[in-house]
Write a structure and sequence with these properties.
With 319 residues, this protein is an alpha/beta fold. It is 31% helix and 26% strand. It has 2 domains: 164 residues, Rossmann fold, CATH 3.40.50; 142 residues, 3-Layer(aba) Sandwich (Rossmann fold). The protein is globular and about 60 Å long. The C terminus is likely disordered.
Length: 319
């Protein structure tokens, strides 16, 4: 793979290093610095002319700085005559604003998609978009990986008994059903109402969790209001254990305090977003799984013009 170049932004260098280790390719040398006024400079220290170039950057906190760095990175590679530029977005920020749910608000998921394409990206590789239809916001090819194989492998190894997959809201039912089919558990649904971006109201549970092991899966945990309220409801209804899994550990605002106070026996996330050491230490029930091999394999297949969708084939050959 001498024609392949992989570079990493500053948002998640640990994951980028694991991906490069899986591929057996050293990360490309790059100089990234901030000027006193906050402007960014990105300079590639290696030749990318005619090369298949991948840029790894999660647009996580600080979100706006990470996004600006990514856009400058893409422009830098384009002006350096890279043959193809693939943006690897383990976490795609601004994805929650994917529609106009009220008047006079933006659709920032579409705006960011336009910015990435306009900057010069030829392809996007991301993971567990907040809404699958965001792929249609891009006018370039998008591969939306799922962390489900990584998370399912871990939970299968726990040999959970009397398992119930609880969807913390109606919009998450499809994800819960996928895990229920994979892990062999029952399915239950919690009805909730979002009052604001920071506050939700949990309603009723459809199904039974009494004396069961509850597993709740979500694409991301930001302020943790939904997942913690759902965990308390399940405990009140007699659940024996409550396990929580998510792809993206945003963990902002009051999330850490809420999770510590909630009846959650174990929280499992992936490393699409780096978890600060102080946050990890504060959460004694936190386990972090790596998606580096999954992303690395996708990069390998894209570079060699092989199928990416085959990564999602189950044992019976279905997707």
């Amino acid at each position: 793979m001498t024609n392949l170049k992989i570079f990493a932004g500053r948002a998640n260098p640990q994951l980028a290093q694991k991906i490069s280790d899986y591929l057996g390719i050293a990360l490309g040398q790059v100089k990234i610095q901030s000027f006193p006024d906050g402007e960014l400079l990105v300079k590639l220290e290696e030749d990318v002319r005619g090369r298949d170039t991948f840029i790894i950057q999660s647009t996580c906190a600080p979100v706006n700085e990470s996004l600006a760095e990514l856009l400058i990175f893409i422009d830098c590679a384009r002006r350096a005559s890279a043959e193809r530029i693939t943006v690897v977005l383990p976490y795609f920020g601004y994805a929650r604003q994917d529609r106009k749910d009220e008047g006079r608000v933006p659709i920032t998921a579409k705006l960011v998609a336009n910015l990435i394409a306009t900057a010069g990206a030829d392809r996007v590789l991301t993971m567990d978009l907040h809404a699958a239809q965001i792929q249609g916001f891009f006018d370039i090819p998008v591969d939306n990986l799922a962390a489900e194989p990584v998370l399912s492998r871990y939970f299968t190894g726990l040999n959970l008994k009397d398992l119930v997959l609880v969807s913390p809201d109606v919009g998450n039912v499809k994800r819960a059903r996928v895990y229920a089919n994979r892990l062999g558990g029952e399915l239950a649904i919690i009805h909730k109402r979002r009052i604001s971006g920071k506050e939700i109201e949990v309603g009723t549970l459809i199904g039974s969790v009494k004396d069961k092991t509850v597993l709740m899966m979500d694409d991301m945990i930001s302020t943790a209001g939904t997942i913690c309220s759902a965990a308390r409801l399940c405990k009140e209804l007699g659940a024996a254990r409550v396990l929580v899994g998510a792809t993206h550990a945003v963990l902002c605002g009051p999330a850490i305090d809420r999770i510590r106070e909630a009846p959650i026996d174990e929280l499992t996330v992936t490393d699409t977003i780096p978890v600060a050491p102080d946050k990890a230490k504060a959460l004694g029930n936190l386990r972090i799984l790596s998606v580096a091999e999954l992303i690395g394999e996708a990069i390998h297949r894209i570079h060699n013009d092989e199928s990416v969708s085959s990564l999602f084939l189950k044992e019976n050959g279905t997707v």
